[in-house]
Amino acid sequence: MEFFSSDNIGLYIAIVLSVANGILMCFASYKFFQIIQLSGYRIKGYFRWLKDTKASYVSRMALLSLLSIFCVLVTNALFDAYHTETLYSYIGLIFYFYFTVVFIVNLYHAPKKIPLKYTTRMTRLNVAMFIFVTLFSFFIIAISTEYISLLKFGALCLVPLFIPLIVPFVHIILLPLESIVINSHVAKAKRKLKKCPNLIKIGITGSFGKTSTKYILNTILSQKYKVCMSPHSFNTLPGLSKVVNNYLNLDDEILIAEMGARNVGDIKKLCNLINPKYGVITGVGSQHLQYFKTQENILKTKFELIESLPRDNGLAIFNGYDEGAKKLYDRCTFVEKKIVGKNSSITAKNVLYDENGTTFNLIINDKEYKIKTSLIGEHNVENIVLCVQMAKELGLTDNQIIAGIESLKPIPHRLELIRTDNNLILDDAYNASVDGSVVALNVLSKMPGRKVVITPGLIELGKKGEEENRNLGKRIAKVADIVVIVNKLNFNAIKNGLDEENFGDDNVYQADSLDSAKILMNDFLKPGDSILFENDLPDNYI
């Protein structure tokens, strides 16, 4: 082929253009990379996003390509460039690169709940993407130059059309390498854990309440022990490996590991790494039903933590306030178990809460203590009781436990109370469960002034999604004065629930995003109003 001749200047121009396009397409693929990451690097989650969003970002890439091609064809026709080898052949590409840069700038300035994190894995994906797109760009230019003279180098404009497929393709190609990398991190973590034979390891799982319980337990146990807690939402196999390798010190006495799951077997993998002696079940609901398909699969997966405990000296602790946890308590017949609740030796009564915090009576083995905490709501009291049971098993005194409870601080984005000059805000943005929404609305009902609820509804509930969001609307109607439904995903279901309770249309608003909802509040918010931000859609649902 003449195109590949070493004395052909077009060959070198093609190489430069291909490299430049490879760089640009890595930036233009930001959203697709972000969704892959938010989906836990699971390809099913990526294609579910494409389906749920009706491939809106694919349409944007197609528009970028088609608009650029049009400009290239018009430019080539004007200069009759497809009959010559002059510089006029490249003028049309100016429009392509300009449109691409504008696309990228708008993409990066769009609001994001969870921005793309350039981890080492994401960096590898970007490098592989750059190499593949560069080669693909060169190939498409070569073919076009030889056989489609009308386009020539303008064929480069076709590349964005393929980006939505190239990203998952490159991701799949890298999976064997990523498996090797993850296994090496896991092996390193296991070696480190072997150096800590006396480390007390606690696993916490459940459909809801995991993170809150983890923070509470860490604060209480820190009154006596040196504790390492898995930070943020590090609750996957790569995440917990990172915790052990980067956060655990050899002189730490306790490791608290939050364990999340979206598939049967996920908890088992985490337990094979951590090998916990103690297991805590916070509660079992319908969260992630979209992934698990059945409620029984959810129960089975959470129970993997209990099955992993050592039979001779392991201990499982269950939240007896929750029906799902009680079911797992009944299933547990092979390891020592304890359950906290209304009739247990460790329980709470006389729970009262308002915007100033929560007070309750804590009973520990027939001894009763008056407790005040800055955490708000009965659910937090249940989590505290669960942690008190664990603390007693590890030898903390009642005074140490009480000191820990009274030093608890609000947990960010989990019914965190924020005071402004004029209003009270309940930030429950990280909650996405049916049970959590019930709790949040109960707390809102105790707050002063008019009640405002801002929510996109509940997600990852599979076939139960519409029903549960309709029920959410009915519950909101009994508490709220004003409702802002964010995004269109669950709007109809929530609105139907509101209508069933005869909630007035004049007090129902719709916003495209959380940012637009905040702007919308300026139209109706008054001093003294209490606002609940209930859940916030991850970017892969927008």
Fraction of residues in β-strands: 5-15%
Report the total helices.
19
Calculate the terminal CA-CA distance, rounded to whole Å: 47 Å
Helical/strand content category = alpha/beta
Low-confidence runs of at least 5 consecutive residues = none
Helices and strands in order:
Blueprint: H1 9-28, H2 30-38, H3 43-52, H4 56-79, H5 92-109, H6 120-147, H7 159-194, E1 200-205, H8 210-221, E2 227-229, H9 237-247, E3 254-258, H10 266-274, E4 278-281, H11 289-292, H12 295-308, E5 315-319, H13 323-331, E6 336-340, E7 346-354, E8 357-364, E9 367-373, H14 378-393, H15 398-406, E10 416-419, E11 424-428, H16 434-445, E12 451-455, H17 465-477, E13 482-486, H18 491-500, E14 508-511, H19 514-520, E15 530-534
Parallel strand pairs: 1-3, 1-4, 2-3, 4-5, 5-6, 11-15, 12-13, 12-15, 13-14
Antiparallel strand pairs: 7-8, 8-9, 10-11
Helix pairs in contact: 1-5, 1-6, 2-3, 4-5, 4-7, 6-7, 7-9, 8-14, 8-15, 10-12, 16-17, 17-18
